[in-house]
Design brief:
- This protein is mostly helical.
- It starts with about 30 loop residues before the first helix and ends in a 5-residue tail after the last helix.
């Protein structure tokens, strides 16, 4: 495994595997992130942008599996995840202590995460 190999640590693409919408328009894909880290000679990392157009989230493993998704098997927008589950997400579906649990996002993501968000 090469030094900057992010395989299995970040998605290959942030596009929803069902509808194709970019769930993280301010994030580089895996290959772009690896290239950024390879050029990062002064340790500043890789810049990302999260805003009201982002649907960056992490749900519990059992929720992801119920949607027939493998770990790191791609991304799903909230609408496609709910369509696969056959129900609306609730705050209990999300991982509260994950770094993504308090970041900005679309109105529907914020509504599903509920009042506990940071």
């Amino acid at each position: 495994m090469k030094k900057n190999d992010l395989t299995g640590k970040t998605p290959e693409s942030w596009a929803c595997v069902d509808c194709g919408i970019n769930t993280a328009p301010g994030f580089p894909n895996r290959k772009q992130m690896e290239e950024a880290f390879a050029r990062d000679w002064n340790g500043q990392g890789c810049k990302i942008k999260i805003n009201a157009y982002s649907e960056v989230y992490t749900v519990k493993d059992k929720v992801w599996a119920a949607a027939s998704m493998a770990p790191m098997g791609g991304c799903l927008c909230i609408g496609c995840l709910e369509r696969r589950l056959g129900r609306t997400l609730t705050p209990k579906d999300f991982m509260r202590k994950h770094p993504f649990s308090g970041v900005p996002g679309t109105a529907r993501l914020l509504a599903r995460r509920g009042a506990w968000e940071a």
